[in-house]
Specification:
Blueprint lengths: L12 H32 L9 H19 L5 H29 L7 H29 L4 H13 L21 H18 L1
Length: about 200
């Protein structure tokens, strides 16, 4: 007995909106925690307290700008998406490392092991990366119908006998010639492979 492929339902707007709202909430919390740690680290590094707030804006601002770019460019080709992802990962690495260093320096002699402080302090930027990717997947999948339905529809269209069309009125322009069914299948398979690469 063969099982039919499982078809998925399109994502509903409330689900996507909830996912994006959760991402924004988590991102705001991560930004606030990271901002405090990076400002304090900048002061420890000798930057004037009056200017220390600029350093976390630069580091975490890069993360925010890259995240917005990734969501805005969702669905574009890999080459277009590469640069924002590199910026996001680079900013997250710097932020994560700086948060960990701050935690180690700030808890010196506080009774908490340095590695515990470092792990706790580095979680906000790491979680931000994870929810960013989740939001991109949600946005991409919300705009497309499930692939299984497309393939089945394209294959049945390819097998369907060609019907004779009624002649068009003389005042209508000639419609474009239909693409061969094999070309349609090729395009559907290409789209599926691109979806798999993105996910």
């Amino acid at each position: 007995m063969t099982k039919s492929p499982r078809t998925s339902r399109p994502l509903s707007r409330p689900v996507v909106a909830t996912g994006i709202a959760a991402t924004v909430l988590i991102a705001a919390g991560a930004f606030v925690l990271s901002f405090a740690a990076l400002t304090d680290l900048a002061v420890m590094a000798g930057i004037s307290p009056a200017l220390a707030w600029i350093w976390p804006v630069i580091v975490d601002g890069l993360i925010v700008a890259a995240t917005v770019s990734i969501v805005a460019l969702a669905g574009h080709d890999r080459r277009t998406m590469a640069y924002p992802w590199v910026l996001l990962l680079g900013g997250a690495v710097v932020s994560t490392a700086a948060n960990a260093v701050h935690a180690i320096l700030a808890t010196d002699g506080a009774g908490v092991p340095a590695w515990v402080s470092a792990v706790v302090a580095s979680m906000p930027p790491v979680v931000l990366l994870a929810v960013t990717h989740l939001s991109v997947v949600l946005v991409q999948k919300a705009g497309t119908k499930p692939a299984a339905r497309k393939v089945r529809g394209a294959r049945s269209a390819a097998k369907a006998p060609k019907a004779e069309a009624a002649p068009a009125p003389a005042w209508l322009p000639e419609p474009p010639a239909p693409k061969p069914a094999a070309k349609v299948l090729q395009l559907v398979e290409k789209e599926q492979s691109e979806d798999r690469e993105v996910a």
